Amino acid sequence: MSTDILVNNYKEFGLTHDPFERARRKGPAQWILKHLFYKSNKFFIVTWLSLVIISSVLYSISMTIVGETIQAFIDGNDDIVYLTLRVLLFGASVPIVDLCANLLRETLAQRMERDTRDEFYVSLLGKSLSFHDQQKIGDLMARSTWDVRQLNFLISPALTLILEALVNSISPIILILIKYPNQFLIAPILFSIVFAISLKRYTKKLSPVTTQSQIEFGNLNAILNESLSGIEVIKGMAQENKAGSKYKKKAKDYLNLGIKEGEIQAKYIPILFVALTITFGLLHGTLLYREGLVSIGDIIGYIGLLMILRFPTFISIWSFRIVQRSIAGARRLLEIMNAHSEIRENPEPIAKKIKGHIKFENVSFSYPGTKSEVLKNISFEVLPGQTVAIVGTTGSGKTTLTKLISRLYNVSNGNILVDNLNITNYSLESLRNQISYIEQDLFLFSNSISENIAFGQVGSKEQIIKAAKDAQAYNFIMDLPKQFDSEIGERGVQLSGGERQRLAIARAFLSDPKILILDDSTSAIDSATEELIQRAISRVLEGRTTFLITHRLSQIRWADLILVLKQGHIIAKGTHYDLLRDCEEYRKIFLTRFDKTLEELLQISKEGEKN
Ligand SMILES: Nc1ncnc2c1ncn2[C@@H]1O[C@H](COP(=O)(O)OP(=O)(O)OP(=O)(O)O)[C@@H](O)[C@H]1O
């Protein structure tokens, strides 16, 4: 993983390397332990565990002291003040120690949740696009919320309870061993054996159900996310009932797994067995008393100690269920974090300013997980500052071709060179920072207009305003209620396609890339807006190597090179004039699109060349 882009992301979080890489590969338990003992967490966990042990021991001792005190009263000891103070001292020390332990536990639990969530998020940012193509967003959200939360619950309360339970089970047995006749050990030892066997069976049965339950929760979230993202389509096609029943079905699957967990819990025997142990202990104590081997105080102290077993027994149902959930959660997080990332940083990455010379050498490409080639043997060359237009039928591979330039996907075969250097030699950051995409369906973040224009760049207010003006976006921005500070909502829903596109152009002006990719193929806008956009586009292209995916005659006729794609092949390349004259497929595109004859189109393009 050291060569992964994840390393760069780690730097954002102030870390120079990924400290959990090895632990992640080893499995959930090792990964959790690594987090628990990472840096200052070590102090929290060691102090907390010590306090839990101290508290439990103090509690057990206070039980025997109660027994001794009652016996002392029976024996006629009238030093009430001393006896009461002794009970009080032990009784009061327990909550004080608990208070400190709880504070440490909560801090540790919150840190665990924060650190694992950060790690998961960083890992997601580092994954390749092909990885994200295959994920369901709702499921990833469930993992980063619900599954991460389970790791908090693992510490608070699960580990606390387990530890307390462990100490609470061991310390009474030790005290019985020290203070009372050995016969008293029969009941707790029998109980411990049954308890250990039942617990093992319980966790074994629970584990697959808990894991499945978390998977179903992820699926449920995926459906919810998909429905909300596609709410316009669902409503537009009156599919609310169908979407509702799909969700209900998944919700029922999730519910059934919850019930199944409950069933397994209900069959947990130790709860019954602890009651039997206490009854047996009482009977046993009475018999020993009759034989004069123990006193009444001994029996009270002994029963008090046996009663302590009730807590660990009862609580083990919940605590081990939480442990199972945490491990299932950790496994689900690791499944994503350990997944192979297609795009890996070069071990010796080059970061340099590029001029914009691009060469494709026999490039073929299939999307990961698919067999058919989307691009086949693509070769062409563009000089710095030139414009390449890509035309072709829908699905012919135009967008895919442009995505390969910034290594959003790796080529399957062949090479892409930028300034005569294979793009795999560049650092991803350096390469991608010098390439800008302008698309009408630009994803806008739920921030202000300024922040969306400056996205990832450091730009002063003046520079942002200038970029907006150059992109012909200034006027519509000034018409918004808070102008540049207007929040544009998730996915920029309050803006039209044309407005979003101009924001993308403004972003490109600000980032000043050497390579520009303009996906204009979906544009369907009125002529006034079109003119504004054209003006902006022609300015933003200046001095940059540009790829245009467009069928706009006004843009195409200026292109230095046009690639005609068909089913992943370049079937022709050349200038607009050459292609109109020589390429049947190309001619068809324009003759059907514009109400003009071939002669008229040739005339227009000749004029374009003259200008
Ligand atoms: N993420 C993906 N995973 C798998 N296949 C994909 C993916 N994206 C696109 N494709 C497939 O690759 C082919 C080329 O798609 P691409 O979007 O590059 O075509 P295009 O020429 O830009 O189409 P359009 O003009 O409709 O935008 C299509 O068959 C498409 O289904």
Largest sheet: 6 strands, mixed
Strand order of the largest sheet: 6-7-8-3-9-10
The CATH topology assignment of the domain at 5-337 is ABC transporter transmembrane region fold
Continuous helix count: 24
**Rg to the nearest angstrom?**
35 Å
What general outline do the C-alpha atoms trace? elongated
Beta-strand content estimate: 5-15%
CATH class descriptor name of the domain at 5-337:
Mainly Alpha
Structural class: alpha/beta
Known CATH architecture of the domain at 5-337: Up-down Bundle
Q: Give the overall pLDDT as a whole number.
A: 83
Q: How far apart, in Å, are the first and last alpha carbons?
A: 53 Å
Pfam family, one: ABC_membrane
Organism: Promethearchaeum syntrophicum
Transmembrane segments: 43-61, 81-104, 151-178, 184-202, 268-287, 299-323
GO molecular function, one term: ABC-type oligopeptide transporter activity
Explain how this protein is built.
The chain is α/β, with parallel strands linked by helices and 611 residues long. It has a domain at 5-337: Up-down Bundle (ABC transporter transmembrane region fold). Helix content is 64%, strand content 9%. It has helices at residues 5-12, 21-26, 28-36, 41-74, 80-126, 129-133, 137-179, 186-229, 231-236, 240-266, 270-290, 296-308, 310-337, 398-405, 428-433, 449-454, 461-470, 474-478, 497-511, 527-540, 553-556, 576-582, 584-593, 598-610, and strands spanning 358-365, 375-382, 387-392, 413-418, 421-422, 435-439, 515-519, 545-549, 561-566, 569-574. A six-stranded mixed sheet has the order 6-7-8-3-9-10, with helices on both faces. A four-stranded antiparallel sheet has the order 2-1-4-5, with helices on one face. Helix 20 links the parallel strand 7 and strand 8 (545-549). The two termini are 53 Å apart. It binds adenosine-5'-triphosphate. Adenosine-5'-triphosphate (ATP) binds next to helix 14. The site of adenosine-5'-triphosphate has 13 residues, from helix 14. Pfam families: ABC_membrane, ABC_tran. This is ABC transporter ATP-binding protein. Its main location: membrane.
